[in-house]
Amino acid sequence: MRSRIATIIGCLFAACFAYGGEAMATTTGGARLWYRAPAEGWLDGLPVGNGRIGAMVMSGEGRDRLALNHSHLWRRKLQHRTNPKVAERLPAIRRLFFAGRLAEAGDAANRMLGSQRIHGVDSYQPVGDLVIGFPGHKDVTDYHRELDLATGIVRTSHRFAGATYTREVFASSTHNVLVVRLSVDRPKALTCSIEVSRKADAECTVTTWGERERVGLVGQFAEPVRFAASVAAYAKGGWVQEAPPGATLARIGVEAAEEALLIVAVATDDDQGEPRAVCSAHLDRVGRTLDFAALRDAHTTAHRKLYERVGLRLGPRRTDDQPTDQRLAQVKAGASDPDLQALYFHFGRYLLMSCSRPGGLPANLQGMWNEDLKPPWDCDFHHDVNIQMAYWPAEVCGLPECTLPLFDYVDSLLPNARKAARDLYGGGGVFIPITSDRWGKCLKTAQGWDEWTGAAAWLAQHYWQHYEFTGDEEFLRTRAYPLLKDVVSFYQDYLVPDPRPRSRHRGKLVTVPSQSPENRFKGGCQPVSLCIGATMDFELIHDAVTHLLAASKVLDVDTAQRPRWERLLERIPRLQIGRHGQLQEWLEDHEEAEPGHRHYSHLFALFPGNQITLKRTPELARAARVSLERRLAARGGHTGWSRAWTVALWARLGEGDRAEKHLRHLITDFATPTLLDLHPPRIFQIDGNFGGTAAVAEMLLQSHGGEIHLLPALPAVWPEGRARGLRARGGYALDFSWSAGKPTQGTIDCLIGGTCRLRSATPFEITAAGERIDVERPEPTLHVFKAWKDTTYVLETREEGK
After folding, report:
1. Cα angle 202-120-125, degrees, rounded to a multiple of 5
2. What's the CA gap between 515 and 447, in Å, rounded?
3. Of 639, 662, 640, 641, which is closest to residue 650 (Cα–Cα)?
4. % helix, strand, coil for the chain, step of 5
5. Domain spans, the chain
6. What SS3 state is found at 722?
7. Any idea what DSSP says for residue 252?
8. Measured between alpha carbons, how far is 699 from 341 in angstroms, rounded to an integer?
9. For residue 4, what pLDDT band results from cuts at 50, 70 and 90?
10. Cα(286)–Cα(266) distance, rounded to whole angstroms?
11. Average pLDDT value for residue range 93-106
């Protein structure tokens, strides 16, 4: 007994924060979404996922519905299409642009440069539903449902007829199954039905089946694409009402039990075998060692390994005594609740680690959760901000492995992307279109939006950032550097000198056709204006070329090519300030047709890029601020993801109060009661969740520009708090607290080694292993010191003059 008590005490001490003696649970373990009312529909559900299998859990009084997904289940009916060879048409189209005939030239580009007649990509599809019915359960009391972010378990309970009924649901990454436990606190009181089905779909043949204690469905599209879901039921203290041999209904029941355990397997053609057989094999493996506690412990251990890397507390400790929807309603009414903003931050991390794991596909427009046969925008991969925004929080929040599905997906595009560059534009390198699906054929499938060449450059930024945060030179050499070379190779061929004799840009290398996604100007073509040289193109080229040069130096390769890359940078137009003092969105100062447009494409250089910074380019930073203010004055930021980008942009401008104001709007105006991000009118689109999480991190810690900046955009409503585990470029993990708006103490774990440049409003004394280290202070707020790999540096308040 004593040894057990000692173990428990030791675990409690280990869970405490490095300083202050405050339990880690205040920054991670207390984060949960909870409600006293049942889910009325899919948007009220609580998501679980393991990167391959996902479910939206909609608990009710007498019926629970779990909408099932598999990240690899996509239609494949449009894959007969190929890109035409149209590069020979490009010179004539460019002549129209240079002649000033913008609308005519844009229309010609949209018609003649390879857009498919059949629009759209293949869509992401739902698997079906697992429905658990509790006969007679009406007017229940003490209803409670919650999602514990720290464990990844959805738990629902209610009282009926003097007994408490409980359901627990999680998606196990260790066993690759969905686990559902049903229990009751009174013997023989658990009776329920279990059914698997899929909504009617004229384009999918679904067969349901039952066999003893198992039920399931098998689906097949005409393409063919096959999938299956199977459920095995086990009862304790009662029995499973088994399906008879050869049953064609996927329905069984549990009778007079104390507990039931449901194991759900889902598979597609990608799982190396016939899907139903794959499901059966999963169920057999789990069934041989069936033990709920073991399944739960394995799941929570793996889940916590990722989730507990980062913690955050904003403001004083708050008791979790109000349902999340009530707290949201109070903030909408004007109350301040920084802890709800911290919960939103944690929820974004949870969603990313639930839908993007090694071996799976990257997050689509809804992550991996979708119930619609025809989902909005096909639940596709949008490359002009949405998929990138999904991964903004990955590195800074210590989830680098969650980016691997993104890199695997982009790598899978590259063979087709090289062919597309040749066939569509007659050049080398890679062309990745504005949208795609899991099959990655690099087709132009959105006429009017297709003529944008920046997707590959923007995606390559994530490769470089992965290296910046992790220092993984093997990744840089084998994956990031080749992609950066391909991106720059494309632009070396695509850029042309501006031949217009009266143009102030004459002789500069420009992109033609060009687009600022997805905006338009007066006098341009519809629905998106094409032009000579949208600003974002030059920002993306600058980003790719500077990273290529830096990578070349790190790897000590391609020395002879560097001068050519440097000349390319010198020959593209500089960023310009327009008539309103704004950062120009296009090479010419066109008048915007929609001043409040949702995209901030030309502000890429401010965030997520770093070509524009407050210190290095103050005039451009002021111009970017004017652009942002003008957008917002015209009611910009009117989607969840756009408002999340707004928060991040204000954070980069050092405007903490403005960033927090828009963070509140993001949560109150563009989130469901379960905090899922919304696109008007009321469409779940997950990128706003991810962008909001990244923006909160950006308010607390920035590491671009060669230095780490603590609290660069702290709002007045967060006067005290603590962050743990946030990552910085250069391979640093930081824990720090603050009070009265200034850092008070902290630690820096150096994971790579190098010169650490730390900016903080508080002067620190820095020690390692109890020894004071030498710190240079070239500026009052800047600390510069040599940091050694695998060393922890302690930051303690330093009194001036001592």
Report:
1. 45
2. 13
3. 662
4. 35, 25, 40
5. 47-74+128-308, 87-115+385-511+519-636, 721-797
6. strand
7. E
8. 12
9. very low
10. 14
11. 97
Token reading at 230: 């199977």
**What are the C-alpha distances in Å from 196 to residues 232, 252, 644?**
11, 10, 37
The token pair at 2 is 């004593």
Amino acid 30: pLDDT: 64
Q: What is the number of residues in the chain?
A: 802
Query: How far apart (Å, rounded) are the C-alpha atoms in residues 439 and 454?
Result: 20
**Gap between the Cα atoms of 547 and 545, Å rounded:** 5
Find where tokens 């060393």 sit.
791
- Which CATH number is 87-115+385-511+519-636 given? 1.50.10.10
Nearest CA to 62 out of 150, 153, 167 is that of 167
Spatial CB neighbours of 241, under 8 Å, sequence gap ≥ 6: 252, 253, 254, 255
User: For 666-696, what is each residue's pLDDT tens digit?
Assistant: 999 999 999 999 999 999 999 999 999 999 9
- Residue 12 vs residue 778, higher pLDDT: 778
Q: Are 113 and 494 in contact (CB under 8 A)?
A: no
Q: Which two tokens stand for residue 11?
A: 């675990």
Overall fold of domain 47-74+128-308: Beta-galactosidase; Chain A, domain 5 (2.70.98)
The half-sphere exposure of 640 on its side-chain side, counting CA atoms within 13 A, is 30
Q: Are 763 and 770 in contact (CB under 8 A)?
A: no
| Residue type at 417 in one-letter notation | A
Token pair recorded at residue 789:
């790999």
The residues facing 153 across adjacent strands are 148
Rounded CA-CA distance 296/313 in Å is 27
Torsional class of 753: left (φ above 0), alpha (ψ -120 to 50), beta (otherwise): left
- Residue 183 and residue 222 in contact, taking contact as beta carbons nearer than 8 Å: no
3-state DSSP assignment of residue 732: strand
H or E stretch including 759?
strand 754-759
Beta bridge partners, 723, equal: 312, 736
Q: For residue 376, count other CB atoms closer than 10 A to its CB.
A: 15
Which of 48, 31, 228 shows the shortest CA–CA distance to 148?
A: 31
Q: 721-797, superfamily in CATH?
A: Golgi alpha-mannosidase II (2.60.40.1180)
- pLDDT class of 800 with cuts at 50, 70, 90: low
In the numeric block, which tokens belong to residue 344? Answer: 């939103």
> Cβ distance 194 to 233 under 8 Å?
yes
Overall average pLDDT of the 660-669 stretch:
98
What are phi and psi for residue 743, nearest 5 degrees?
A: -60, 140
356 with 689: CB under 8 angstroms?
no
